[in-house]
Specification:
mainly alpha, two-stranded antiparallel ribbon, homodimer, 7 helices, about 110 residues, elongated, about 60% helix
Amino acid sequence: MDALSSTLAALADPTRRAMLVRLSQGEATVNELAEPFEISLPAISRHLKVLETAGLISRGRSAQWRPCRLEAAPLKEVDGWLARYRAHWEGSFDKMGAYLTELTKGDENGPKS
Amino acid sequence: MDALSSTLAALADPTRRAMLVRLSQGEATVNELAEPFEISLPAISRHLKVLETAGLISRGRSAQWRPCRLEAAPLKEVDGWLARYRAHWEGSFDKMGAYLTELTKGDENGPKS
Protein backbone atom coordinates (compact mmCIF):
# COMPACT_ATOMS: atom_id res chain seq x y z
CA MET A 1 0.00 0.00 0.00
CA ASP A 2 1.30 3.52 -0.75
CA ALA A 3 2.28 5.64 2.27
CA LEU A 4 -0.65 8.07 2.07
CA SER A 5 -3.20 5.22 1.77
CA SER A 6 -1.55 3.48 4.74
CA THR A 7 -1.79 6.69 6.81
CA LEU A 8 -5.44 7.30 5.90
CA ALA A 9 -6.38 3.67 6.63
CA ALA A 10 -4.66 3.92 10.03
CA LEU A 11 -6.63 7.11 10.78
CA ALA A 12 -9.95 5.53 9.73
CA ASP A 13 -10.63 4.24 13.25
CA PRO A 14 -11.92 6.28 16.22
CA THR A 15 -9.78 4.40 18.80
CA ARG A 16 -6.59 5.03 16.84
CA ARG A 17 -7.50 8.69 16.34
CA ALA A 18 -8.16 9.04 20.09
CA MET A 19 -4.72 7.53 20.78
CA LEU A 20 -3.12 10.15 18.53
CA VAL A 21 -5.04 12.90 20.32
CA ARG A 22 -3.60 11.63 23.62
CA LEU A 23 -0.08 11.48 22.13
CA SER A 24 -0.40 15.02 20.79
CA GLN A 25 -0.16 16.02 24.48
CA GLY A 26 3.08 14.08 25.02
CA GLU A 27 4.60 10.60 25.19
CA ALA A 28 2.59 7.81 26.83
CA THR A 29 3.09 4.16 27.76
CA VAL A 30 0.87 1.44 26.30
CA ASN A 31 -0.97 1.17 29.62
CA GLU A 32 -1.61 4.91 29.72
CA LEU A 33 -2.89 4.78 26.14
CA ALA A 34 -5.10 1.79 26.93
CA GLU A 35 -6.69 3.31 30.04
CA PRO A 36 -9.61 5.24 28.46
CA PHE A 37 -10.72 2.27 26.34
CA GLU A 38 -12.75 -0.76 27.34
CA ILE A 39 -10.89 -3.06 24.99
CA SER A 40 -8.29 -5.75 25.63
CA LEU A 41 -4.55 -5.03 25.74
CA PRO A 42 -3.96 -7.28 22.68
CA ALA A 43 -6.48 -5.16 20.77
CA ILE A 44 -4.68 -2.01 21.95
CA SER A 45 -1.39 -3.52 20.76
CA ARG A 46 -2.87 -4.24 17.34
CA HIS A 47 -4.03 -0.63 17.03
CA LEU A 48 -0.56 0.61 18.04
CA LYS A 49 1.04 -1.70 15.48
CA VAL A 50 -1.15 -0.20 12.73
CA LEU A 51 -0.15 3.32 13.82
CA GLU A 52 3.53 2.33 13.99
CA THR A 53 3.48 0.66 10.55
CA ALA A 54 1.97 3.85 9.11
CA GLY A 55 4.77 5.86 10.73
CA LEU A 56 2.30 7.80 12.88
CA ILE A 57 3.95 6.78 16.14
CA SER A 58 7.37 5.58 17.25
CA ARG A 59 8.30 3.54 20.32
CA GLY A 60 11.05 4.32 22.80
CA ARG A 61 13.95 1.89 23.18
CA SER A 62 13.60 1.36 26.91
CA ALA A 63 12.67 -2.35 27.14
CA GLN A 64 10.39 -1.87 30.14
CA TRP A 65 8.36 1.22 29.21
CA ARG A 66 8.75 1.73 25.47
CA PRO A 67 6.79 4.99 25.53
CA CYS A 68 4.88 5.86 22.37
CA ARG A 69 5.28 9.23 20.72
CA LEU A 70 3.46 10.98 17.93
CA GLU A 71 5.23 11.29 14.57
CA ALA A 72 3.48 14.08 12.72
CA ALA A 73 5.17 13.76 9.30
CA PRO A 74 2.49 11.46 7.77
CA LEU A 75 -0.22 13.87 8.98
CA LYS A 76 1.57 16.63 7.11
CA GLU A 77 1.28 14.50 3.96
CA VAL A 78 -2.49 14.23 4.48
CA ASP A 79 -2.65 17.98 4.98
CA GLY A 80 -0.73 18.49 1.74
CA TRP A 81 -3.15 16.27 -0.15
CA LEU A 82 -6.13 18.18 1.30
CA ALA A 83 -4.71 21.56 0.30
CA ARG A 84 -6.11 21.48 -3.24
CA TYR A 85 -9.66 21.07 -1.89
CA ARG A 86 -9.49 23.94 0.58
CA ALA A 87 -10.78 26.38 -2.03
CA HIS A 88 -13.87 24.19 -2.47
CA TRP A 89 -15.09 24.50 1.09
CA GLU A 90 -13.77 28.03 1.63
CA GLY A 91 -15.99 29.06 -1.27
CA SER A 92 -19.06 27.43 0.28
CA PHE A 93 -20.23 30.55 2.16
CA ASP A 94 -20.12 32.53 -1.08
CA LYS A 95 -22.15 29.80 -2.75
CA MET A 96 -24.67 29.88 0.07
CA GLY A 97 -24.90 33.65 -0.27
CA ALA A 98 -25.60 33.28 -4.00
CA TYR A 99 -28.20 30.60 -3.23
CA LEU A 100 -29.98 32.82 -0.69
CA THR A 101 -29.96 35.69 -3.19
CA GLU A 102 -31.52 33.31 -5.69
CA LEU A 103 -34.21 32.29 -3.17
CA THR A 104 -35.23 35.87 -2.41
CA LYS A 105 -35.84 36.47 -6.10
CA GLY A 106 -39.02 34.40 -5.80
CA ASP A 107 -39.60 31.33 -7.93
CA GLU A 108 -37.03 29.67 -10.15
CA ASN A 109 -37.99 31.80 -13.15
CA GLY A 110 -36.75 34.88 -11.33
CA PRO A 111 -38.48 38.10 -10.25
CA LYS A 112 -41.77 38.88 -11.95
CA SER A 113 -41.95 42.56 -11.17
CA MET B 1 -18.88 3.48 11.12
CA ASP B 2 -18.65 7.13 12.23
CA ALA B 3 -18.63 9.74 9.46
CA LEU B 4 -14.97 10.73 9.82
CA SER B 5 -13.80 7.08 9.77
CA SER B 6 -15.95 6.47 6.71
CA THR B 7 -14.39 9.48 4.95
CA LEU B 8 -10.82 8.45 5.83
CA ALA B 9 -11.43 4.84 4.74
CA ALA B 10 -12.83 6.09 1.42
CA LEU B 11 -9.72 8.27 0.94
CA ALA B 12 -7.35 5.37 1.75
CA ASP B 13 -7.18 4.27 -1.88
CA PRO B 14 -5.12 5.87 -4.67
CA THR B 15 -7.78 5.29 -7.36
CA ARG B 16 -10.49 6.98 -5.28
CA ARG B 17 -8.17 9.89 -4.47
CA ALA B 18 -7.35 10.28 -8.17
CA MET B 19 -11.09 10.38 -8.93
CA LEU B 20 -11.54 13.20 -6.41
CA VAL B 21 -8.62 15.08 -7.97
CA ARG B 22 -10.40 14.83 -11.34
CA LEU B 23 -13.70 15.98 -9.79
CA SER B 24 -11.99 18.94 -8.13
CA GLN B 25 -11.73 20.31 -11.69
CA GLY B 26 -15.46 19.92 -12.35
CA GLU B 27 -18.26 17.39 -12.83
CA ALA B 28 -17.54 14.21 -14.78
CA THR B 29 -19.45 11.20 -16.03
CA VAL B 30 -18.58 7.68 -14.90
CA ASN B 31 -16.95 6.99 -18.27
CA GLU B 32 -14.84 10.15 -18.01
CA LEU B 33 -13.78 9.15 -14.49
CA ALA B 34 -12.97 5.61 -15.61
CA GLU B 35 -10.86 6.65 -18.61
CA PRO B 36 -7.42 7.05 -16.91
CA PHE B 37 -7.67 3.69 -15.12
CA GLU B 38 -7.02 0.22 -16.45
CA ILE B 39 -9.70 -1.33 -14.28
CA SER B 40 -13.17 -2.65 -15.12
CA LEU B 41 -16.28 -0.47 -15.09
CA PRO B 42 -17.79 -2.57 -12.25
CA ALA B 43 -14.65 -1.85 -10.18
CA ILE B 44 -15.00 1.87 -11.02
CA SER B 45 -18.65 1.71 -9.90
CA ARG B 46 -17.65 0.13 -6.59
CA HIS B 47 -15.12 2.91 -5.97
CA LEU B 48 -17.77 5.54 -6.78
CA LYS B 49 -20.23 3.84 -4.43
CA VAL B 50 -17.67 4.05 -1.58
CA LEU B 51 -17.12 7.76 -2.31
CA GLU B 52 -20.87 8.38 -2.51
CA THR B 53 -21.59 6.52 0.75
CA ALA B 54 -18.93 8.65 2.47
CA GLY B 55 -20.64 11.77 1.10
CA LEU B 56 -17.53 12.74 -0.90
CA ILE B 57 -19.40 12.80 -4.21
CA SER B 58 -22.98 13.22 -5.34
CA ARG B 59 -24.60 12.04 -8.57
CA GLY B 60 -26.75 14.10 -10.90
CA ARG B 61 -30.37 13.10 -11.45
CA SER B 62 -30.22 12.83 -15.24
CA ALA B 63 -30.89 9.13 -15.83
CA GLN B 64 -28.57 8.92 -18.81
CA TRP B 65 -25.47 10.79 -17.64
CA ARG B 66 -25.67 11.06 -13.85
CA PRO B 67 -22.54 13.23 -13.66
CA CYS B 68 -20.51 12.94 -10.46
CA ARG B 69 -19.54 16.01 -8.50
CA LEU B 70 -17.21 16.57 -5.59
CA GLU B 71 -18.78 17.26 -2.19
CA ALA B 72 -16.07 18.90 -0.11
CA ALA B 73 -17.81 18.98 3.31
CA PRO B 74 -16.33 15.65 4.55
CA LEU B 75 -12.84 16.85 3.52
CA LYS B 76 -13.39 19.92 5.68
CA GLU B 77 -14.06 17.56 8.62
CA VAL B 78 -10.73 15.82 7.98
CA ASP B 79 -9.03 19.21 7.84
CA GLY B 80 -10.64 20.15 11.16
CA TRP B 81 -9.38 16.96 12.78
CA LEU B 82 -5.86 17.62 11.45
CA ALA B 83 -5.80 21.17 12.80
CA ARG B 84 -4.59 20.19 16.29
CA TYR B 85 -1.50 18.49 14.83
CA ARG B 86 -0.44 21.39 12.65
CA ALA B 87 1.69 22.84 15.47
CA HIS B 88 3.60 19.54 15.64
CA TRP B 89 4.94 19.65 12.13
CA GLU B 90 5.20 23.43 11.96
CA GLY B 91 7.47 23.19 15.00
CA SER B 92 9.60 20.43 13.47
CA PHE B 93 12.30 22.75 12.13
CA ASP B 94 12.68 24.30 15.59
CA LYS B 95 12.95 20.81 17.09
CA MET B 96 15.60 19.86 14.54
CA GLY B 97 17.50 23.03 15.42
CA ALA B 98 17.38 22.11 19.12
CA TYR B 99 18.49 18.57 18.27
CA LEU B 100 21.46 19.82 16.25
CA THR B 101 22.43 22.15 19.11
CA GLU B 102 22.26 19.16 21.43
CA LEU B 103 24.49 17.12 19.10
CA THR B 104 27.17 19.78 18.95
CA LYS B 105 27.36 19.74 22.74
CA GLY B 106 29.12 16.37 22.53
CA ASP B 107 27.87 13.27 24.36
CA GLU B 108 24.48 12.87 26.03
CA ASN B 109 25.82 14.08 29.41
CA GLY B 110 26.32 17.51 27.94
CA PRO B 111 29.40 19.62 27.37
CA LYS B 112 32.47 18.70 29.41
CA SER B 113 34.38 21.93 29.05
